[in-house]
Task: structure prediction
Amino acid sequence: MNVQQPIKYVQKLIRQGRYSFSREEAAKALQQDSKKLSQTLKRLTDKGWVSSFCRGFYLVLDVQHQEKGLDPKWFIDDWARFVGSEYYVAGLSAAALHGAAHQRPMSFQVISDRQYRSVQNHGLQVDFFHKRNIHQKMWSQIKSPAGFFHVGIPEITAYDIVKYERICPSLDLAVTVIMELGESLRNHELAQLVHIGCAVAPLQKLGWLLERAGWNDKADAVDEAIGNRRRVLRPLDSRLPAKGERNKRWRIIENTDVQPDIER
Result:
């Protein structure tokens, strides 16, 4: 079997609107054994038609994506089905999809119910963050050119930005993103965050940041979510000494000055 037939297989996938495939699928379609298939996939990779994203899972690159790589939104749902994980696009990537595009994220951020290493592919980086239990109410579906994918709802996006320090490198950026997200945040959904698995400690910080961003009604909804649950005194920035004014409402030690990059 010459290499032209495998290229036709890849081109057929593109015509079908598919931009990924598994090694098992390719073996069945091309009727090749493991050794032969490895050689075929290497040739296709060398010619720029495919790229390995993880073991056994390949991306299809049409001409327009052979240099810059494939937008992860086009294949992340296929990847999740391949590995058998629950997931949603999260953090700054989700915030951008919700209209908070003040700063473009440096990587594509995904939360999954299993732990995975970050993946670099054609200059694009996908960072994975672990959340053991992903409630169905944490995400909604958005359409992509290749199908649909899961994205965290605005309220869980704001929560994750606060919870996972690696998602958002600074509190200044966090309050800026939350300020932009404010229009999308729904008070009822904020008030339900505890009931879908969100912890009190990040909610304390989220409430503080919402107040700092000027979204007082949203902060009230977070206060309602926490309710009578115990609020442990915590520093605003866990990376700095716990010295500063104490916010009685949120039980936060204001150990750093937080300044948004924009104004409401």
User: Anything to note?
Assistant: The CA atoms of residues 49 and 61 lie 5 Å apart. The two ends are 63 Å apart (CA to CA). The chain has ten helices and twelve strands.
